[in-house]
From TrEMBL:
This is BFN domain-containing protein. It comes from Thermacetogenium phaeum. InterPro entries: BFN_sf, Bi_nuclease_dom. PROSITE patterns: BFN (PS51658). Pfam families: BFN_dom. Residues 1-131 form the BFN domain. One of its GO terms (molecular function) is nuclease activity. The lineage of its organism: Bacteria, Bacillati, Bacillota, Clostridia, Thermoanaerobacterales.
Length: 159
């Protein structure tokens, strides 16, 4: 398993939301297309937004908390026919449960629970280098997010 960080929500050329999962070296990224509602939920979790009433993923986390269960980790584990699959590992009083999940829901819950996110080794071929992923303006935005101040530092971080 490869640990990844949920970096941000971006948009593809058709303006559909994409969640970017970046490896620890910040050299490779796995973009996963997601729905607009899930994108909003992930973005809210990334920004620490608290709503006056619980949103769906907040409610799911509350269920876990109140039932004595905890989300231990999320693994994006497969892609079939262009669709990514994920598993959520949940610790309960009677043992660990592994639940099939859409990656977007699993990521939204992992962020709320502070649980780590991983991708399966077999998905490494679906990752892109930061250069491949974005045009120059998008690279500049990512540099800001990653805290890379100049182009030389950016190029060094890619090797």
């Amino acid at each position: 398993m490869i640990p990844v960080q949920v970096k941000e929500i971006a948009f593809d050329l058709s303006l559909s939301p994409v969640v970017l999962l970046v490896d620890e070296s910040q050299k490779r990224a796995l973009p996963i297309s997601i729905g607009p509602f899930e994108a909003q939920s992930i973005a809210m979790a990334l920004q620490g937004v608290i709503t006056p009433r619980p949103m769906t993923h907040d409610l799911m986390k509350s269920f876990c908390d109140n039932l004595g269960a905890s989300i231990r980790r999320v693994v994006i584990n497969d892609i079939r026919d262009g669709t990514y699959y994920a598993e959520m590992y949940i610790q309960t009083v009677s043992g660990e449960l592994v639940l099939d999940s859409r990656p977007s829901d699993a990521i939204a819950l992992a962020l709320r629970a502070g649980a780590p996110v991983y991708i399966s080794e077999k998905l490494i071929d679906y990752t892109l280098s930061v250069d491949e992923l974005m045009d120059e303006s998008q690279q500049q935005e990512l540099r800001k997010i990653l805290g890379i101040n100049n182009l030389d530092d950016f190029k060094k971080s890619l090797h």
